[in-house]
Amino acid sequence: MTERPVPVPSPSPACTLLHDGSCPLCAREVALYRRLASEGQVGFLDVSAEDGRPLPAGIDRRRAMARLHLVTADGRVETGARAMLTLWQQLPGFRRLARLLRIPPLPWLLEIGYRGFLVVRPQLQWLARGGIRPVARTPPPRSPTD
């Protein structure tokens, strides 16, 4: 009698990062996080991809595109600088920095810096794309038989 392999369920990640994959700055940052995270440690969900995957409960796609979101394994949702600090705690090379930046009033200052970044993010995206505006996604033209 031969034994059939039993599929081992993959552990759920400690956190899942919701990010704007259409943003060249965000894509570079997420690529770094992917390289640093060990297998299954951090989940990544591109909220710009319209592939039908639902977002976690209570998260609006428009808001998730505008501001970094992170969902912890216990379902807690964090945004902005707080989300970055929680993510960094999971990543080698960032853990000490995350611990340091959690000392008051540094989280508050980091959040102010993050909000400032959000103001100039569109201009930085434009520069990162080489001064080219992204092409808007439009549906294909309808044929007369539709």
Automatic annotation (TrEMBL):
InterPro entries per the UniProt record, alphabetical = DCC1-like, DCC1_Trx
User: Which residue windows are transmembrane per the record?
Assistant: none
What top-level branch of life does the organism fall under?
Bacteria
Mind listing the GO molecular function terms for this protein?
Answer: protein-disulfide reductase activity
Q: What is this protein called?
A: DUF393 domain-containing protein
Q: Which organism is it from?
A: Tistrella mobilis
